[in-house]
């Protein structure tokens, strides 16, 4: 690993983020990343966060048109309420703050506590829970479904709504609508190595893959002998479509887990598009890349987000963050 | 690997690129990627290309403000002259075409032949050779220095100049100036696995790293026991500064080789910035991410590009490609 010592990986990453992105305010000690122009008069603030190791999620999605602030925890470990309260205070203009929470037990508990503390300080807080992963329910770290790729869509679409000056109640409603219209399924082709452990956190023999993997390497549905890109696309897309029958066009995220080359991700996208076409699902936009990662894990996930014209307009709206940028 | 079969990896990748990016014209059979609005009246066309496996380089840098077209070869294999001539013909508006060529023997020969063929067809062609890697001279596949991270700067800065309508001679002069002002040094923490071989192409034991690696896993200067991120930054930056003593500020590219998590790259950037500050090198802009990759290889490279006010203005100019986008 390209690190100093495991203990400083998150702080080192934040120092490097600050150096590369002067348009962000990075509090390395308190571990809060805020867009420099916050709070914005009359605009709802969007705060998310979670364990580190999923970059560019979440800190890489802070900026105009997306998150107002992010709170990175230790690797694969929830941030603490103090970070979230600081972030809320930094971005609240009086219009309130939306907490975007991936459904992992630690994150849910800590964001709940932070919401109470922030309300005590006079900040109006609404929440949205992201739980899009159809692979399993009640996984390691999670009661119910895990939150994965939908987080990007919730942060982008709710962020665009907040940027337009919509009130907290509407921004929350959009975030919930996006989560309800979004489903994901992921596969791992190799295990993930955390800095603290220094070796793979689970055992996945070469020549096998895990279908339905979580973004922390949590077990999925089953192991199989290696499949082709086309076979994996069939399995993943069908798993999503079992749970989401889109009548409207979808946004497609073909997401790399971190260790799979972009060339392979694009090839996988070709197969995902083939399956969607065969299933008569219309595609409005497609995003391919490493966005919701699991450190160095090889593998990919497919996320489909059903959109109406309004959500598509919010997707196309300008965004300027380290990890996602267009139109400005 | 997330592939169908090794033989279709490049074609599959191009099909997936086409599906995700309707703003590009992707000829999968001829393997040419062109911005959809080409040729642009009165503007110089910029054509690059090389072996696949380095994505987003080069096809991911096609679009307004950067390349007009790219020719992807097989994995780690030069494209053929026919691709380059097709690309030149597709983007030439009469103002001529600049070939941007990384210094590998096969690429140089093929682009030379393509230039002759294109001139025979009445297209005015100028060339720039990119050879920024200070690690070694006369490596595997290369006479002289290898072309690596500087390619991104040459393509971006010359692309911005072409977008402004500068004549071919000036666009070529800028491209050469950028190459002369840019140096790189890379390290590998793991070997690279090509689809054709299916296993690591060289042997790099866990707990060791290769200093001065090439982007195809070519040997560097030396092997050592694993070093910290800070020690690697000292070594890499000093290797660059032995060869380039910047009197002006620099653009910094902290580039991942494909398999290193973004969290680690940002941490490495913090150390690179520390060394630059200690060596009293002023930093104008910093870019961190996987841009000039080597499939799944773990590791990183540092590229410094010395800029005057004019080059900095060209860097900040709007660009809209799959891999690099701002300002539009």
Which oligomerization state do the chains in this entry correspond to? homodimer
Query: Might you state the CATH topology name of the largest domain in chain A?
Result: Rossmann fold
Mean pLDDT of chain A: 97
The CATH homologous superfamily of the largest domain in chain A is named: Dihydroxyacetone kinase, domain 1
Find the count of extended strands of chain A (DSSP E, 2+ residues).
14
**Largest sheet of chain A at a glance?**
6 strands, mixed
Tell me the span between the first and last alpha carbons of chain A: 35 Å
Largest sheet, spatial ordering of strands of chain A: 1-2-4-3-5-6
Share of helix of chain A, binned? 25-40%
Q: Provide the gyration radius of chain A in Å.
A: 19 Å
Question: In terms of structural class, how would the helical and strand content of chain A be classed?
Answer: alpha/beta
Could you tell me the strand content of chain A as a percent range?
Answer: 15-25%
Uncertain stretches of chain A: none
What is the class of the largest domain in chain A in the CATH system?
Answer: Alpha Beta
Largest interface: pair, residues per side: A-B, 59 and 59 residues
Tally of separate helices of chain A: 8
Architecture per CATH nomenclature, i.e. the level-2 architecture of the largest domain in chain A: 3-Layer(aba) Sandwich
Query: What general form of chain A does the structure show?
Result: globular
Tally the structural domains of chain A. Answer: 2
Helix and strand run of chain A: HEEEEHEHEHHEEEHEHEEHEE
């Amino acid at each position: 690993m390209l690190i100093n010592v495991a203990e400083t990986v998150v702080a080192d990453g934040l120092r490097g983020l600050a150096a590369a992105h002067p348009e962000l305010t990075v509090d390395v000690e308190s571990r809060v990343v805020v867009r420099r122009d916050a709070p914005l008069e009359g605009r709802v603030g969007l705060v998310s966060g979670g364990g580190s190791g999923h970059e560019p999620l979440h800190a890489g999605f802070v900026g105009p048109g997306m998150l107002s602030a992010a709170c990175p925890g230790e690797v694969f470990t929830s941030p603490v309420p103090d970070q979230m309260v600081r972030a809320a205070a930094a971005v609240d203009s009086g219009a309130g703050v939306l907490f975007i929470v991936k459904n992992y037990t630690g994150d849910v508990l800590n964001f709940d506590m932070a919401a109470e503390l922030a309300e005590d300080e006079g900040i109006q807080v609404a929440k949205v829970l992201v739980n899009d992963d159809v692979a399993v329910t009640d996984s390691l770290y999670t009661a119910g479904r895990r939150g994965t790729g939908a987080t990007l869509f919730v942060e982008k679409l709710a962020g665009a709504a907040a940027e337009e000056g919509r009130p907290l109640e509407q921004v929350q409603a959009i975030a919930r609508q996006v989560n309800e219209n979004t489903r994901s399924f992921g596969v791992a082709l190799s295990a993930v190595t955390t800095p603290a452990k220094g070796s793979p956190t689970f055992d996945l023999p070469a020549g096998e893959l895990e279908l339905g993997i979580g973004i922390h390497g949590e077990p999925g549905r089953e192991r199989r002998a290696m499949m082709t890109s086309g076979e994996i696309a069939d399995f993943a897309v069908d798993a999503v479509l079992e749970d989401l029958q889109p009548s409207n066009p979808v946004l497609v995220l073909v997401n790399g887990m971190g260790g799979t080359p972009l060339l392979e991700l694009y090839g996988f996208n070709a197969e995902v598009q083939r399956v969607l076409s065969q299933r008569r699902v219309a595609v409005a936009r497609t995003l391919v890349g490493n966005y919701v990662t699991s450190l160095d894990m090889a593998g990919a996930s497919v996320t489909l987000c059903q959109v109406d014209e309004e959500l598509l307009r919010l997707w196309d709206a300008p965004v300027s963050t380290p990890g996602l940028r267009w139109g400005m």
